[in-house]
Amino acid sequence: MKTLFCLLVAVSAVIAVPLENVERKYPRFIDFPDGDGVLHKVDLEEEPDMNVLEDVFRNPANNQYLLYTRRNPSNAQTLRINNAGSITSSNFNARVPTVVVVHGWLSNQNTNINPVIRDAYLRKSDVNVIVMDWRRLALSTYPTAVAGVPAVGRGLGQFLNFLSRTTGASLGTMHLVGFSLGAHIVGNAGRELGGRAARVTGLDPAGPLWNLNSNRLRPSDGVYVEAIHTDGGAIGLGIGSAVANADFFPNGGNSQPGCITSLCDHNRAWELFAATVTHDHLVGRRCSNMLQVSTNICTGASLRMGNDILNKSGTGLYRLNTQRRYPF
């Protein structure tokens, strides 16, 4: 009996090691989806395309910034960095919050995440929604896109600084939301802003090539940084480890009810987030460690996941359980 007890304690100790202290080993070749759900074979050891990266580093104007408001809920107005007229002649309202939405790899302004989150916000309240299209880099190879994330994030931060100077909009009224690679982009944007953005949300931040990457999303990237982890398994598409002030692990953070593929698990992060913007109904319980997260025995304080609250606060690991279908 004593031997069995010692074995159980040892196993529990291994399981309870926080994921952020473990280097995840991906195979060299993985399948990673584009914004339409088509899987692409990725060589994680492929050399980045330096021609693309040099262009991205030189020219932050490669990124497009598309404004939607209640006055133009479906027809975008294009805002341009260093072009004040493009902003002052638009429907941008400095008196209301601004939400920036950033897509993932092999995606663009039309990928589902953008209209779904945009529409959830505009139905809920009067806000500026800015969709960033970074397809110039996003349509390159995955290792190239990873290498270019810091530059794209800095470009976004520079644009938001310009937007603030031009309109008087406070960085404290801005919420940056990014999915997959886009989660690390908004982290870098927040860093460029000196951590002054009110809120930064990472939706299943990408995992491959990011576990030990110093350019990944960090807790200091905003006043409040939140991450929602939905596909953090051993070779999941998400990072699976705590990277924010508050890290939520729906259904344990590895697989989601109603999903049979990693792609479905990965996308569930932005689907859950959009649902919480509308309903604000998913509540996590704080966990002491990842063992409690995985075994669903968290009994700590509660914190609502996602939602549209601008001045949100909270720290720690949180577990919650959801349903299979919207609104989950």
UniProtKB/TrEMBL annotation:
<dbReference type="GO" id="GO:0005615">
    <property type="term" value="C:extracellular space"/>
</dbReference>
<keyword id="KW-0732">Signal</keyword>
<dbReference type="InterPro" id="IPR000734">
    <property type="entry name" value="TAG_lipase"/>
</dbReference>
<dbReference type="InterPro" id="IPR029058">
    <property type="entry name" value="AB_hydrolase_fold"/>
</dbReference>
<protein>
    <submittedName>
        <fullName>Pancreatic lipase-related protein 2-like</fullName>
    </submittedName>
</protein>
<feature type="signal peptide">
    <location>
        <begin position="1"/>
        <end position="16"/>
    </location>
</feature>
<feature type="domain" description="Lipase">
    <location>
        <begin position="61"/>
        <end position="307"/>
    </location>
</feature>
<dbReference type="GO" id="GO:0016042">
    <property type="term" value="P:lipid catabolic process"/>
</dbReference>
<dbReference type="GO" id="GO:0017171">
    <property type="term" value="F:serine hydrolase activity"/>
</dbReference>
<dbReference type="Pfam" id="PF00151">
    <property type="entry name" value="Lipase"/>
</dbReference>
<comment type="similarity">
    <text>Belongs to the AB hydrolase superfamily. Lipase family.</text>
</comment>
<dbReference type="InterPro" id="IPR013818">
    <property type="entry name" value="Lipase"/>
</dbReference>
<dbReference type="InterPro" id="IPR033906">
    <property type="entry name" value="Lipase_N"/>
</dbReference>
<keyword id="KW-0964">Secreted</keyword>
<dbReference type="GO" id="GO:0016298">
    <property type="term" value="F:lipase activity"/>
</dbReference>
